[in-house]
Structure formats: structure tokens, C-alpha cells
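ok trying again, last paste got cut off:
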Amino acid sequence: MGSTQFGDFGNFCLGSTLPVCNLFANSLARGGPGFGTCQLNGIPLSNGQHLRNLGSILLCGLAILITLLLLLRSERKKAAVGRREIQLFLIGYIIIEICEIFTIGGFPLATNVRLGFTAAHLGAIVATMWVLMLNGVVGYQLMDDGTALSLGFILLSAIALFIGTGYIALDTAFGWTNRFATSLNYPNQNIGLYVLYQLVPLIFLFIFFLLETFLVLRVLGERKPMLYLIAAALLFAIGQIFQYVVSIYICNGTSGKINGALFETLFTLLSVIMIWVFWSSITEDDWPMPVTDGAYT
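nice, full thing came through this time. structure:
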């Protein structure tokens, strides 16, 4: 993969299956020729259509089922700190996986429908990483967890990020203002989406890990939960390596049958599971918790 200028998606799209690539003129989603490298063949269907990335689709379905189980397990921890807040994160992840089925997964869809799912996918990624970062703040009890104030702030701010990111994606795709028209063609430079989709989630994730590390080591004085937190970080990083670095080699090596998106989905799921295990390990049902009239329990 060649060097990439700040804001350019072109080279990323050459070697990776990223949802944002659906927005650009060369994408198969828009009837383009693809990005000139290995294209997924998938399963041939009628009228020359193909079902691509079946493995990713199945893993997304598995991820949704497992996350629903984690939601139910969280519900049983009645007195756990940040129970509602971690559930918001899990709901956000479920939304991401639903969108991924129709963006990374190659279901035959109308172009406008796929572009709509793509915008929702990008917005959900940014919003969910924001929710995760705020989960890192919850443990410090700056405000009572589970209250209307806490949940309302997290939810409304996440919705604002979802709408903002989704609007830029939709404007890019449909050219409502022509502000992002030049990004449709190579090198596909879109500063707004690059910052919101590529950089901001990493910043949120980094802050979350810093906050939780300080909480565990300095406030709680524990070490074992750090194993789960480190595992979550490593699993996420491995998934990104498969997506951005190894994907093209997997695609070429399998003659277009699979690529790195399959493994990115798998390792991200494992990372989410470890984040939940970490949260569960530092929240005890018998911790003394302040009673607040407005709390949701």
C-alpha cells in the first residue's frame, strides 16, 4: 500500500474493506469498477449479483447474539457500578454489527439503501466509541451512575455525534451541498470523515484505556483486571492489523474468497467481550452504592 496523505481514503480502500469506501465513486456499492486490487468474489446469485463476505455476515450475527447475552448478564448485576452505561455501549455495538451486515457484508441492495446503512455505520462507530470513553469516566463517580442525568448526557451527546458523522457521510454520498464532491474520486480526500471516522474513535479508545488503567491501579489497587483490559486492547489492535495491513494478502491468497474484514469482525467481537469481562471484574454487586431517587435500577 502506498503512502497516504492526511484525509485520503484512496489507498486504504485499495487494500481494505472499509464501510466508508462504499461512499466513493469507484466502489462496487455505487456500480463502480472497484478499487483496482483484489475484489471479493462471493457467492454468485441471479442477475449477475453476488453475496460477498458471507463469513463476516455470519460473524456479525453471532456478535449480535453474544452481545444480547452480555446485556442480559449485565441486567443481573443489580448493584454494579455503571450497569446502564455499559449497556448503552453494548447497544451501540449491536447497531454497528447490524449496519456491518449490509455495508461490509455484500447483500444485494439498492445503492441508496447501502449508502444509508454506510452513513449509519460510520455514525454508530463514532457514537459508540464516545459512549465507551464515558464509561471510563463513570467509575470515578463524578455524577451518580444510572441516573437520568448520567444516561441523558451520554445518550444525547452520542446521538449528536451520530447525526453529525452520518450527515457528512450522506452529503458525501448524495452531494446535497457538493461540499465533499471532490472526495468521490481518487485519492478520496475527505477531512471531515477522516477525522471523525479514523482518528476520533482512536482518541476516545485511548482515553478510555488511560482512565480505566488509573482507576484499577491507583484507585482500586487491583492488578488482575488489567489482564482483561490489556487483552481487549491487543485483540482490537490485531483486528485492525487484519483490516488495514493483512487484508489484501488474504484476499490474493484465497483468490478473492475472503479478506481481512472477516478477522477484523472476529477480533473486535473478542475485544468487546473482554471489555465486558473487565467491567464485570471491577464491579461488585455488594459494593456500597449511594441511593439516588432518580436512578434506574
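cool. Confidence is low (pLDDT under 50) at residues 285-297. The helical segments are 10-15, 54-76, 83-103, 111-138, 148-174, 191-220, 224-253, 260-282.
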